[in-house]
Amino acid sequence: MHSSVNNRKCTLKPLIVVGLCLIFAEIGLAQSPQSQCDRDHTDIRGHLISSEFIRSASRDDIARSFATLGWTDVVVKTGVSIRRIVYTTIDAHGAHTVASGLLALPTDIEPVGVVLFGHGTSTQKSYVPSAPTLEGETVAALFASGGFALAAPDYVGMGTSPGPHPYLNAAAEATASLDLLTASRHAARSTNIELPRSLYMTGFSQGGQTALALDRAIEGGGNSQWDVAAVAPIAGPYDLAGTEFPGLIDGTSPSSSAYLAYLALSYLQVYRGNISDIFQTPYNERVTLLFDGQHTLSQIVQALPAPRNLFREDFLRAVQAGTSPFVWQLRENDTMLVAPHAPVRLYYGDADTDVLPANTQIAASAMRSLGVNVEAVDLGATADRPASEYLGLPAVRAWFDQLVAGR
Q1: Does the 240-332 domain belong in CATH 3.40.50.10240?
Q2: Exposed, middle or buried: residue 149 (CB in 10 Å: 0-12, 13-18, 19+)?
Q3: Which residues are CB-contacts of 188 (< 8 A; sequence separation ≥ 6)?
Q4: Which of 159, 173, 331, 361 suits 54 as a labelling partner, its CA being 20 to 30 A distant?
Q5: Confidence (pLDDT) at 115
Q6: Of 90, 92, 85, which is closest to residue 37 (Cα–Cα)?
Q7: Distance from the first to the final alpha carbon of the chain
């Protein structure tokens, strides 16, 4: 189900046109472009623009695929249908925009719950779940074959969404996810399927932050459309200020400079900073070109120096002293103090050098101090970044199955 379409690009017609308000007017969300733009954001968020069938797979197809992966313990209950969703949302500055995502539905049984999956870091605009990628198809098959509806946002600035991607911006991840869930409910109804209220959240790496940010938006915001049943992120950077940024500056991963440049450039765009105050010459001019949505992470890694040669020395000194605005920006996007009412399992691998295990250990301790029912699940001493996802995903599915059976 996954190998032949790994690099397939979206076939949707471009939705990026001059004046997004014209789009909203065309799809019946406004009487006029001007009147719609003046309305409250919640009036136009989560509206379904399009729902495009991509493909389906039978139970036998999925079982064979899982056997190839070595996921022989995963129970395949149903076939799966995958759709590409385009919907309205807001960007990191609160402006109206559109975004895309993947929706997977069980074909042989009614959904037992809804899973929201946040995908890991991608620097390519087209390498997103709805493309679909290998990650997107595998996750869709894993959860939807268990009877769950699966929604996976591409994120703002990715997929069909215009503008730069606000990487590791928790608020933008949460709004893109919440609005995809709303649009997915409309898309499912168009196929005569009603999505349950029970919501299970997971995600890998960047998507781990997404899962906790979404829980904060739902449970902290009193959103009544969804009942959070469980939160199970995998290897997420929850402690950006205290663990992830300092660790990557020391070069824990071969990709450290690429992650750090992506993060710093994102926050410059979100919080409107000066790029020359952070990056050394000539990288103050090069990083924007590298993160144009077309370069792979490997290409960016090869084009950047070690972290301490990438950033200005005075910037790094100010970060270490806690006097740089970048420090509070990181703290604003930390998710270690999110306090779900639902049970939480934080999965991590001891050998992950990209997202340091201390993120999970510190987050688990912080959540316990807030009274959260949280467990840190160690996936093993040899579990590096890829192994964390490979081992973590079926473990999350098994836990969600247990929770559904125990309801």
Answers
A1: no
A2: buried
A3: 103, 105, 111, 149, 194, 195
A4: 173
A5: 98
A6: 90
A7: 31
d(CA 101, CA 400): 22
Exposed / middle / buried, residue 13 (Cβ in 10 Å: 0-12, 13-18, 19+): exposed
- The average pLDDT across 110-115 equals 98
Q: Measuring CA to CA, how many Å separate 237 from each of 124, 203, 283, 338?
A: 20, 11, 25, 13
pLDDT surpasses 70 at 23: no
Instruction: Please state, rounded to an integer, the average pLDDT across all residues of the chain.
Output: 90
Sheet holding 96-106, edge to edge: 48-57, 80-90, 96-106, 148-153, 113-118, 198-204, 227-234, 344-348, 374-378
Q: What's the rounded Cα separation, in Å, for the pair 267 and 47? A: 28
What's the rounded Cα separation, in Å, for the pair 263 and 29?
A: 34
- Per residue in 210-247, is it b (16+ CB within 10 Å) or e — as a string? bbbbbbbbbbeeebeebbbbbbbbbbbbbbbbbbbbbb
Rounded CA separation 250/244 (Å): 10
Give the position of tokens 């991608």.
122
Is 382 exposed, middle or buried, given 0-12, 13-18 or 19+ CB atoms closer than 10 A? exposed
Asked if 190 contacts 149 with a C-beta cutoff of 8 angstroms, the reply is no
- The continuous run of DSSP H or E covering 180 comes out as helix 170-189
pLDDT cut 70: percent of the chain above it: 89
325-332 and 256-271 helices cross at what angle (nearest 10)?
90
Query: Both tokens of residue 225?
Result: 């459309």
Q: How far is CA 283 from CA 85, 275, 287, 289, 292, in A?
A: 36, 9, 6, 10, 14
Say whether pLDDT at 368 is over 50. Answer: yes
Strands, E, within 107-226: which ranges?
113-118, 148-153, 198-204
| pLDDT for residue 33 is more than 80 | no
Domain segments of the chain: what residues? 240-332
The arithmetic mean of pLDDT across residues 157-181, rounded, is: 97
pTM for the full model?
A: 0.90
